[in-house]
Specification:
Number of helices of chain B: 14
Shape of chain A: elongated
Order of helices and strands of chain A: HHHHHHHHHHHHHHHHHHHHHHHHHHHHHH
Radius of gyration of chain A: 31 Å
Distance between the termini of chain A: 58 Å
Radius of gyration of chain B: 23 Å
Number of strands of chain A: 0
Largest interface: A-B, 60 and 63 residues
Order of helices and strands of chain B: HHEEEEHHHHHHHHHEEEEEEHHEEEHEEE
Number of helices of chain A: 30
Number of strands of chain B: 16
Strand content of chain A: under 5%
Structural class of chain B: alpha+beta
Distance between the termini of chain B: 39 Å
Oligomer: heterodimer
Largest sheet of chain B: 6 strands, antiparallel
Shape of chain B: globular
Strand content of chain B: 25-35%
Helix content of chain A: 55-70%
Number of domains of chain B: 4
Structural class of chain A: mainly alpha
Chain lengths: ~500, ~450
């Protein structure tokens, strides 16, 4: 009888309809046939009766019994914890507030060593998955449970790329290899750090498995240095494998070929040729990471992109030395070329990757005003790769036009970088100008971000005195003040208490 | 008057209106702000200058703006301002316009509901309605039988046929049936298991019609429930004439939904002392926005009198609060004590209620120590004994649920429809997480 009244059987019939069934009744279990036989004249009504009965009886017969299921992975223990629950409504309100950037709220949380509250994680993760800098900020403020949650949802994979490498080994093993590959492709520098950590912890077999990953990292000087150190590894197999790779590596470098290509690109009058049909010496070895620059084949944008990559690989100082020019002249030459605007990003990246402040200064001289293609987000993304101690110096070096990007200030928050007194003094005039100019709420936001960072009571008082007179500024100001209050509350010993209690 | 931002947010008809109100909540936008024990008033600068008055005892709102929403963004903005900057609201003498409106409200409230003037006419009207409903039901029967003959796959491609039947039921004054049919129409070809959902819904609808046709043989309490499902509304005066349950009620969660000019709000309350759960449902349209019940802040406690609509199966209720804006913090510990320890007793209880009322849509239950799990890629909740109940398909706040619980066990307030669980809130120790069901787009399931 239980089979007779299984609603799934009736469901199939209902989809097609009784008129289409033909020998519908003969297919039904005998018990139901007997029931329907008496009322064949009104089969539809009979069917509905049987349907109601079957659905009702199925619902009543459903009592759970112990069952097999896939248990969810454990949440890793290490990492920042969510803030005290009393502060969660304020944080949620500020994150929903349009008048202040979310980056600022996230930065306040991160600097206070707290994570995003668990209950709003899906909302934030869904909102911000597209913006790389925000992704990085959010990834830094994820609690262990947040990282656990991100690993469960395919749509949030981009966040995993932004997670610090240390948190990778806290992921479930099945997610780890996939994510690792994605991270290698997205951020080789981070990947190198990860390999080095794993290398130290793993045995000979594990180290051997890690070695092939180095192929992806061959553009980085640190990778080469490290690989050379690997030659003295205690495992013979690893040592030999590292040596083989290093020999091949040196052969593949092709630095001379790249330099020749670059100098060929630069014409006597300092202009890049329109058509970049130059063949690289390594072109017949595509697996070695060579960069053919045939514009006809690649298209202009990709050709310039590859040229930029080439510049980054070669490094600014090597190029200047090869050309026999100073760094400033080399940068000026490239900036004035036909592709000067497009190369702006790569020239800065070259300066940052090779950690050359002289190159950075040369870049600033070459580009006194930021070109449109050089957005604040890109600039901040480059800064994010730099050493935190370098950033105050860079800020000093950068002129005011470059400081208008909120992303830069979000980065300062994110890294918890302390700006020194001299820099503060230098920047105060522009801050005060921003405060006096209520027509520029973006400048105002920047000003407040910096004020919040530097804890300048006098500037705050000034802001409070000036801004409430303007309706458009009063609102944002109010929220900034809330943010500062939040920061104070998070840093207070009372807020720290739960953390102290939770730690073993 | 002490207001919090969360309380004001709970009053908002939707998140968009609240966001707009927050932008507007600046002292510069208001003039003539004043308040007394009963009301709060101001003039607000919008496209024009609007007169605004809020009766705090209701709360009820009166704004001269052309928006029909209640509360409108201006009223919410004034409440936000009062919550965030209490100094901006100073005691003052009530202006004439506000005083007159409050007098009108008082007069309307005190107006005695006199005896029926013409009992014969009333009986005639009742009989006429019975006939109209009977005609509507007969047509719905034919519609269902045609559906069975022609097949769902074929009929589902013609939504206009379904809509015509819905309109016919509204004309026949059987709004409850129209609402149920509308829900089924919206499920057609939606999601993977739509046929399954529609099958159970049609079965329930057929059962309801059969029960109504045989109402003479059923007990009066059940007949009253059946009539309510079909569309006979219980009169407020009749409900309020019953003895209330006066207690400190926990606000478990609240869900407001707006669709096609109609608001619906579901509020779940629980009194741990009497172990009762109450469901307050209210509906409003753009034309009578005040009909929506007052908003509540989940995770708080209110002092209120709860009038259950039926003694047969006390669930749906009307709530009368002692003070409009008073909210007390509460410790969920007391709910943990009354929650079922695992699935089996909880579902047995739900099934007992279903036997009493077979077309019951869902039954609220509190269960301890449930942990999320996946069964063939479907989200489920497992108890300490390893028994599973699947979470309903298309459950929108699934990630919020996982974020709040993690893989660890948490206590859960949920509704169970006979097959699937629908979590509304989870808690652990002193932390209460109300799940945001506003994302759910089929929230008005029947």
């Amino acid at each position: 009888m239980a089979t007779a009244f299984n609603p799934r059987i009736l469901s199939a019939f209902l989809l097609r309809g009784l008129n289409q069934q033909g020998d519908f009744f003969s297919q039904l279990p005998p018990a139901l046939q007997a029931l329907l036989a008496d009322r064949r004249a009104d089969r539809a009504r009979c069917f509905l009766d049987a349907l109601s009965l079957s659905c009702f009886s199925e619902q009543l017969s459903q009592l759970p019994a112990p069952d097999q299921f896939d248990p969810l992975p454990e949440v890793p223990e290490a990492g920042a914890h969510p803030p005290p629950s009393a502060l969660v409504p304020t944080i949620c309100a500020l994150l929903r507030e349009e008048a202040i950037p979310r980056a600022a709220v996230l930065a306040v949380l991160h600097n206070s060593r707290y994570a995003l509250p668990d209950s709003i994680l899906p909302m934030i993760l869904n909102l911000e998955s597209g913006e790389p800098l925000m992704r990085a900020l959010i990834a830094q403020t994820l609690s262990p449970r947040g990282r656990w949650l991100v690993a469960l949802n395919e749509d949030w994979t981009p966040y995993l790329l932004s997670l610090s490498v240390q948190s990778l080994d806290q992921l479930p093993p099945r997610c780890q290899s996939e994510r690792l590959q994605a991270i290698f492709q997205a951020d080789p520098k981070q990947a190198l750090e990860f390999i080095q950590t794993q290398w130290k912890q793993g045995n000979g077999e594990a180290r051997l498995r890690l070695l092939p990953w180095m192929r992806l990292l061959k553009g980085f000087p640190q990778a080469r240095t490290w690989l050379e150190s690997v030659r003295s590894d205690r495992s013979d197999r690893v040592r030999r494998a590292a040596l083989r790779m290093l020999c091949a590596w040196h052969a593949e470098q092709g630095q001379a070929g790249r330099l020749a290509l670059l100098s060929e690109c630069l014409q006597k009058r300092g202009r890049l040729r329109h058509r970049l049909e130059i063949r690289l010496p390594e072109q017949d070895q595509p697996e070695l990471g060579v960069l053919p620059l045939d514009e006809a084949k690649l298209g202009l944008a990709k050709a310039v992109l590859r040229l930029g990559q080439l510049l980054v690989l070669v490094g600014p100082e090597a190029l200047a030395q090869h050309l026999g020019l100073s760094l400033k002249k080399t940068y000026a030459l490239l900036a004035r070329s036909d592709f000067g605007v497009e190369l702006c990003y790569f020239l800065l990246e070259a300066a940052l990757v090779h950690e050359s402040l002289a190159a950075l200064e040369a870049w600033l001289l070459a580009y006194p005003d930021p070109p449109k293609t050089m957005t604040g987000a890109r600039l901040a993304a480059l800064f994010a790769q730099s050493h935190p101690q370098q950033i105050p110096n860079m800020l000093k070096t950068l002129g005011e036009p470059w400081l208008k990007a909120p992303e830069i200030w979000a980065l300062i928050f994110q890294r918890g970088i302390e700006c020194d007194a001299q820099l503060t003094a230098d920047l105060m005039p522009s801050l005060c100008r921003a405060l006096r100019s209520p027509k520029h709420p973006r400048s105002l936001q920047l000003a407040f971000l910096l004020i919040a960072q530097l804890h300048i009571p006098t500037a705050l008082a000034e802001a409070q005195r000036r801004c409430p007179q303007h309706a458009e500024v009063g609102g944002p100001l109010k929220h900034w003040m809330e943010l500062l209050e939040l920061r104070k509350a998070l840093d207070s010993p009372c807020a720290r208490e739960p953390l102290i209690r939770k730690s073993p | 008057m002490q207001l919090s931002l969360a309380q004001v947010e709970a009053l908002a008809p939707d998140a968009g209106t609240f966001a707009r109100a927050k932008k507007l909540a600046k002292p510069q936008r208001f003039s003539g702000i004043g308040a007394d024990d009963r009301a709060l008033w101001a003039q607000v600068q919008g496209t024009r200058t609007y007169e605004l008055c809020i009766d705090l005892q209701g709360p009820a709102y009166r704004c001269s703006c052309p928006v029909r929403q209640s509360p409108c963004k201006h009223a919410l903005a004034l409440l936000i301002l009062a919550a965030q900057e209490p100094d901006a609201v100073q005691p003052a003498t009530r202006p004439d316009r506000c005083a007159a409106w409050l007098r009108q409200r008082d007069a309307a409230a005190q107006k005695p509901k006199g005896p029926v003037k013409d009992p014969k006419a009333q009986a005639r009207r009742a009989q006429a309605r019975e006939q109209k409903v009977a005609q509507g039901i007969a047509e719905l029967r034919r519609f269902l039988e045609d559906l069975v003959r022609l097949g769902l796959a074929d009929t589902a491609k013609q939504p206009q046929v379904w809509e015509r039947m819905e309109r016919r039921l509204i004309d026949a004054q059987a709004r409850g049936l129209a609402h149920q049919l509308g829900w089924i129409r919206r499920q057609l070809h939606r999601g993977e298991d739509w046929a399954d959902r529609v099958l159970f819904a049609l079965a329930r609808l057929h059962l309801l019609l059969s029960a109504y046709e045989q109402r003479d043989r059923l007990e009066p309490g059940l007949v009253e429930e059946i009539r309510a499902q079909i569309g006979w509304y219980r009169k407020r005066e009749a409900i309020l004439s019953k003895p209330p349950v006066q207690a400190h009620w926990f606000v478990l969660n609240q869900h407001t939904r707006y669709e096609s000019g109609q608001y619906s709000r579901t509020v779940w309350l629980c009194d741990p002392q009497s172990r009762r759960i109450a469901q307050e449902l209210s509906f409003a349209t753009d034309f009578n926005p005040d009909a929506l019940s007052q908003g509540y802040q989940p995770g708080t406690q209110i002092q209120a009198s709860v009038y259950f609509h039926s003694d047969y199966l006390p669930l749906r209720a009307t709530v009368v609060r002692s003070e409009a804006f008073s909210c007390l913090p509460f410790s969920p510990q007391r709910l943990t004590e009354i929650a079922y320890p695992h699935w089996e007793p909880a579902l047995r209880s739900a099934q007992e209620q279903r036997i009493r009322l077979p077309f019951l849509l869902e039954w609220p239950i509190l269960v301890r120590d449930l942990r999320p799990a996946f069964k063939e890629d479907r989200l489920a909740l497992a108890d300490q004994q390893g028994c599973l109940v699947l979470v309903e398909p298309n459950y929108a706040p699934r990630w919020q649920l996982l974020a709040c619980t993690g893989p660890e066990p948490s206590h859960c307030f949920l509704t169970y429809d006979g097959r699937f669980a629908r979590p509304w809130a989870v808690w652990r120790e002193d932390q209460w997480f109300a799940l945001d069901l506003d994302e759910v787009d089929d929230g008005d399931r029947f």
